[in-house]
Amino acid sequence: MSAIADNVARMPSGQPHGIHGSNTARNPGMALRPEMFEGHAVNRSAAERRAGTLTTRRSVKKANQAAWLVNAIRCMDLTTLSGDDTAGRVRRLCAKAREPLAPRIVEGLGIGALKVTVGAVCVYPTMVAHAVKALEGSGIPVASVATGFPAGLMPLRLRLEEIRYAVDEGADEIDIVITREHVLKREWSALHDEVGRMREACGPAHMKAILATGDLETLRNVYGASMVAMQAGADFIKTSTGKEGVNATLPVSLVMVRAIRDYRLETGFRIGFKPAGGMKSAKDALAWQILMKEELGNEWLRPDLFRLGASSMLADIERQLEHHLTGRYAASHRHAIA
Is the pLDDT score of 9 beyond 70? Predict the structure, then answer.
């Protein structure tokens, strides 16, 4: 086994493909408990300072860096959410999901035996059936956005029906969006009821609650929304739709993962985390993994507890891994996503 393959193998892989079947007990949720977040102060300056030191205090180099980048691929939700999506585009994306690294890179790194794939493929509900068919036999789960993504401004009954439609089409995971107004007006009971009903509509499919943190105004609101979503039964909390003016940032992510830590201390249940939007480089992939390791520990460096919603990041990761092997950067077109 190569040094890189050995390093990857030592990382906490958890469930190789997705959330289902992992050793992580599913979050059952609870009644709304405002005392777990009301009055919880968040010091923005301190959060920004802490986030700013994450990548300067820890350095990952050479074979270790390559292993971390391979692990980022295993935790990636490869996504297409465009108005011009077609069955053909989804099939190409699924082919990339099955084989995210070029064979020459896999051979050079010596990781062929690891059979690296992405964490999931994420599409719109009408594309789920195409993805399910294209991924048949791979073990890679299909995730679907729902609930009027990205704004979520649809009647609740229609949002719940969209969830049920995606699940019926074969989705294993549902990425829902919350009503931002509930957070901005601090209507916690309404938010808890909404997310709880969405969780019920998901049935066996695991639910990622998108908070759209760029719309929530304050870090205190981010912490409160994170806690309410988890109390309502979310399996993951997710920063952004990728469509907001401001998407995933390290300070916001720090607040969310500390909410996850507090929830686990209170309940014993582990909740997953997914940053999404605005992350494009291999450097970003390292930064968010460092955040997870520093704040939550090694067990959160696996796809059943951590996802990266950043498809464009994959091409840069491939370029960096090829540079690791050859000392040269390949042209971007040699690493097309789909």
Answer: no
pLDDT band, very low/low/confident/very high, at 253 (cuts 50, 70, 90): very high
Domains of the chain, residue spans:
3-19+32-328
Give the SS3 label for residue 202.
helix
Q: Is there a contact between 75 and 303 (Cβ–Cβ < 8 Å)? A: yes
Q: State yes or no: is 304 an active-site residue.
A: no
Active-site residue among 175, 215, 284, 304? 175
Among the listed residues 96, 208, 238, 293, the single catalytic one is 238
Q: Which residues pair with 120 in a beta bridge?
A: 77
The verdict on whether 238 is a catalytic residue reads yes
pLDDT in tens, 70-105: 999 999 999 999 999 999 999 999 999 999 999 999
Tell me whether residue 280 is one of the annotated catalytic residues.
no
Matching residue, tokens 């959060």? 47
CATH of the structural domain 3-19+32-328, one choice from 3.40.50.300, 2.30.30.240, 3.20.20.70, 1.20.1270.10: 3.20.20.70
